[in-house]
Amino acid sequence: MNLHQKLSLPDLQNWIENVTKLTQPNKIYLCDGSEAEYQNLINEMQETEDLIKLNSDKYPNCYLHRSDPSDVARVEHLTYICSNNKDDAGPNNNWMDPKEAHSKMDLLFKNSMKNRTMYIIPYCMGPIDSPYSRCGIEITDSPYVVINMKLMTRIGQSALNRILKEKEYVKGLHSIGKLDPNERFIMHFPDELSIKSFGSGYGGNALLGKKCHALRIASWQAKNEGWLAEHMLIVGIEDPKGNIKYIACAFPSACGKTNLAMLIPPKSQPGWKIWTLGDDIAWLHLDDSGEMRAINPEAGYFGVVPGTNERTNKNAFDMIHKDTIYTNVGLTEDNEPWWENKNTGIPTKDWQGNIYKAENGVAAHPNSRFTVSAKNNPSYSSLAEAPEGVPISAIVFGGRRKKLAPLVYEAKNWKHGVFIGAGIASETTAAATGKKGILRRDPMAMLPFCGYNFADYWSHWLSFERKTEKLPKIFHVNWFRQNDKGMFLWPGFNENLRVLRWIIDRCEEKIDAQETPIGFLPHRDDIDMNGLDIPNKNIDELLSVDEKEWLNEIQSIGEYIQNFGQRVPKGLLDQFKKLEIELSKSST
Ligand code: OXD
Ligand code: MN
Question: Which of 186, 177, 192 is nearest to 212 (CA)?
Answer without folding.
Answer: 186
